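worker-03 picked up job from queue 'complexes'. Input manifest follows; two sequence lines, order preserved.
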Amino acid sequence: MAGQLTLGIDVGGTKILGLAIDGAGAVLAEAKVATPRVVPAENDDDSGAEAVIEAIADVAEQLRGTLGTEAARLSAAGVGVPGLVADDGTLSFAPNLPGGEGLDVRGRVGRRLGDLRVVVDNDATCAAVGEWTYGAAAGATDAVVVTLGTGIGGGLIVNNRVTRGAHGFAGEIGHMVVDPSGPSCPCGKRGCWERFASGSGLGRLAREAAHAGRLEEVVRLAGGDPEAVRAEDVTAAAAAGDTGAQTVLEELGWWLALGLANLANLLDPALFVLGGGLVDALDLVLEPVRVAFDDLVEGRHRRPEVMICLATLGERAGAIGAGVLARQDDRAGVVGPD
Amino acid sequence: MAGQLTLGIDVGGTKILGLAIDGAGAVLAEAKVATPRVVPAENDDDSGAEAVIEAIADVAEQLRGTLGTEAARLSAAGVGVPGLVADDGTLSFAPNLPGGEGLDVRGRVGRRLGDLRVVVDNDATCAAVGEWTYGAAAGATDAVVVTLGTGIGGGLIVNNRVTRGAHGFAGEIGHMVVDPSGPSCPCGKRGCWERFASGSGLGRLAREAAHAGRLEEVVRLAGGDPEAVRAEDVTAAAAAGDTGAQTVLEELGWWLALGLANLANLLDPALFVLGGGLVDALDLVLEPVRVAFDDLVEGRHRRPEVMICLATLGERAGAIGAGVLARQDDRAGVVGPD
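worker-03 finished. Artifact:
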């Protein structure tokens, strides 16, 4: 029996994953539901946001059910949500969870869960805490965990602490502008890093290549329309040996390396951990990414090597990290491996 | 008598400024010498680097002379140098101090100063420590101090600590790439932030405007050659009301705001402090910079305001910060106001 138990609940764009973990990070229960579609409220009706709160509570109840009598050892629940989370647990800005903006996640989940203390944080920060505590970044005093999905999320470990900044919003690495004349981003700017080096960035690079005639076989498999080419078509073709698709992945890798080099210049981490849904595709281009990174970081020949490695907790990283954060009284507290 | 005294010595591109400060930051002595020109050694002759060490020692001796019997209270000296400074006090990478690369500044200055403990750090980090301890960033737990000179240096205050990263190289904000197809940088990359938003960036933007016929009066004053236009010609003309020059300054301001927005997305500081030689020119465009920043930072309408203010210690910031750092046994230690 490793001390207290906590719940960790990761609210993703398509599903909500919940885990019950013990003080050593062992997973004692798992539950999953589809993320309700949140519709922006035109009036006072916030039934959409309410549905998300209900779904989180539903996952928590399932986990308690699985735990049975062990549920009495639960002390707290951590919840990871996409967007900017203020220190008071409110979702301040949520471009990827329409209608969630302004939602008091901590207060409302807290009222549904009754006796459990609730901690709320950004989903990528939770994933970083998970990887830092039990995964690929374990033991690092300075690391950046990069979550590559539809967009790019980030969690910064600086001076052996999770960095949240002055208002809780640090780590929005996907919205670092790397080309002000680049494609528009849902955030309102142009040329954000996640327009190039994420899953949606890969789709865009692929369609550009398709229109330029560099992805003939992939376009044929997608039904002949360059606009129909998706990121997963390219990664599948690249894995099967299509050189055009491999070139597109290398282009993605170059943009990924550019952003990592920027982050290395700013924060000088000992390692980068790459996680998220795009990681399987990255396996194919990890060496080119490392080479491009060395070329792009300042003074590479005079620096110790910066490790670039893949996450090890997979899709559970966010929920595990949320469960770890739930152990702390204060979400700004020091969080390190046990 | 406020406790121990320390020396703070700031090695700049043109001059070396030294101060003796007490534990409350009061300046008790000041000395200044020209920075010797360091010539890259083709062979084992490192007379150039030796000249810099001698000049630092010369400044220290002048300060001791001014202090007189008070010099007995000196415990340590801090030295700020341009470039990447490793944790052992070696200058690892120094594009702005040719021939200084690989120089063991701590060891060599230490041998010349005899009984004084020597701490070495990056010059912009020293300036940040100065502004954080006694200047515009005093009391902030999360702040970024941006030094705008020929290039752009940075000092990051994260979680109430100076951030140095895993190897001591953090804060190289000027080499964040913001346009990969932009102008080349001496660091070897293209489109680094300092190619746009520094003194040399201003000169480049000005010459572009001059060639495009947007700076007729400034070109005339510079002798008729657009290539002869310098940054200071533009700031002088803008201050005198030249609208073409003001437009160039606003362009600089937009690029400055872009980089600040990137840093806010990453680190979520409570404030930015702008220092360095370009600050006087910035006075004219600070409001446009704030407006552009609000437009560029993610989720501005859902964030508390991020302050953007000017440094208050002027050209002394680096030397004062070096003197503050000298008080610590370990340069990675927590450094806060007394």
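worker-03 released lock.
Chain A touches chain B through 50 residues (CB under 8 Å).
The first helix of chain A runs from residue 47 to 67.
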